[in-house]
Amino acid sequence: MKRYYAAWILGVLLSAQCVSAAVLATVNGDEITSEEVSKVLMEGTQGRFDSLPADKQNELRQRIIEGMIAQELVYDDAKRMGVLDSKVYKQELEALVNRLKVQLAAKVWEQEQFEAIKVDPKEVKSYFDTNPDEFVDKEKIRARHILVKTDAEADAVIKSMKSLSGDKLKNEFIAQAKLKSTGPSAAKGGDLGYFPRGQMVPSFNDAAFAMKEGTISSTPVQSQFGYHVIYVEDKKAAKKLSFDEVKNFIEQRLKMDKFKLTMEKKMADLRSKAKIVYTK
Questions:
Q1: HEC states along the chain?
Q2: In the chain, N or C terminus with fewer CB closer than 10 Å?
Q3: pTM score
Q4: What is the CATH number of domain 6-115?
């Protein structure tokens, strides 16, 4: 199906569409597949889509689907109006194809240059040994929260669970989070997953990391979002990562460093051999 996303068009040119891709929507018989949506999401987030929180992923995915539906509707109407036969459309299409040819050639060229870079395993081990502080998995906690609008609401939640502990406290907290929390994690019982120090807003961060595992905050925690009641479900101490855990990451980092240097030399060489004229 036709698309105006240049990134999507490049993706299609580079790889055949997966026959097993799930159909997420159809517009007048044309399919919008999970693969098409995933390509746009990865391009739009520069490859970081999978690292986003689940609720943010769902929000972005739905936004892209709705945008692609809107584009398909416009495309169908443009066909009906004869836009595809117009001189302007044909000129713009030719210009777009020419630009994409250049971009695609550059992309494939860069990929081939990158794949040609080799990293000696000894370099990888040496980097690991000389940079031990880089390979420490930071202290993390897993927490849940109930977000409400007022201090009084938060205080009432805390008092209602004051006598509970263990699984009874956890289960009651989850139930109240689903019922009372105004935060996006309410449906998951307030679960925020694991996070390191500094990821949350300061007031939330300081309170959560000062708490013991299996307890709730003794007083409401205020932030710009409202008032939080926090439950700390689990704590993971900082630990040093093993070489096997990080060797692939180190190899890719060293390969990228070499690639950057190679590209600088390559571009300098290409420029020195080319005739480049700047015009005002």
A1: CCCCCHHHHHHHHHCCCCCCCCEEEEECCEEEEHHHHHHHHHHHCCCCHHHCCHHHHHHHHHHHHHHHHHHHHHHHHHHHCCHHHCHHHHHHHHHHHHHHHHHHHHHHHHHHHHHCCCCCHHHHHHHHHHCHHHCEECCEEEEEEEEECCHHHHHHHHHHCCCCCHHHHHHHHHHHHHHHCCCCCHHHCCEEEEEECCCCCHHHHHHHHHCCCCEECCCCEEECCEEEEEEEEEEECCEECCHHHHHHHHHHHHHHHHHHHHHHHHHHHHHHHCCCCCCC
A2: C
A3: 0.52
A4: 1.10.8.1040
